[in-house]
Amino acid sequence: MSSKRRRGDHAEEHENHERWAVSYADMMTVLVALFIVLYAMSTVDQAKFEEPAPVARRGFRQRLRQRHPGHARRA
């Protein structure tokens, strides 16, 4: 056998002992994003929230009437 082949058989691969850090960093990124979204959802401007409400209400009523045409209309 050639010396190159023998060296290839005994060569040890470098093992990465810090691969947990990548998973940890990914999890921390997801958690930070989650808390940012939760915070953004917790501060609701009441005027901005009420503005599209009537439009959405009408839209849902129309869909309800389309699906169940026999039901009476509620205010």
What descriptors fit this protein?
4 helices; mainly alpha; single chain; 75 residues
Walk me through the structure.
The protein has 75 residues and is an all-alpha fold. It has one domain (14-67). The protein has four helices and no strands. The protein has helices at residues 3-10, 19-42, 46-50, 53-67. The longest helix has 24 residues, at 19-42. The model has no long low-confidence stretch (mean pLDDT 79).
Strand content: under 5%
Average pLDDT over all residues? 79
Tell me the structural class: mainly alpha
What sort of overall outline do the alpha carbons produce when their principal axes are compared? elongated
Enumerate the spans where pLDDT stays under 50 for 5 or more consecutive residues: none
Overall radius of gyration: 30 Å
Total individual domains:
1
Helix fraction, binned, reads 55-70%
| N to C succession of SSEs | HHHH
Q: How many beta strands in the DSSP annotation?
A: 0
How large is the count of helical segments?
4
Largest sheet: none
Q: How far apart are the first and last residues' alpha carbons, in Å?
A: 90 Å
Keywords: Membrane, Transmembrane, Transmembrane helix
Pfam family, one: MotB_plug
Domain Motility protein B-like N-terminal: 4-51
Subcellular location: Membrane
Summarize the structure.
This protein has four helices and no strands. By secondary structure, the protein is mainly alpha-helical. The chain has one domain (14-67).
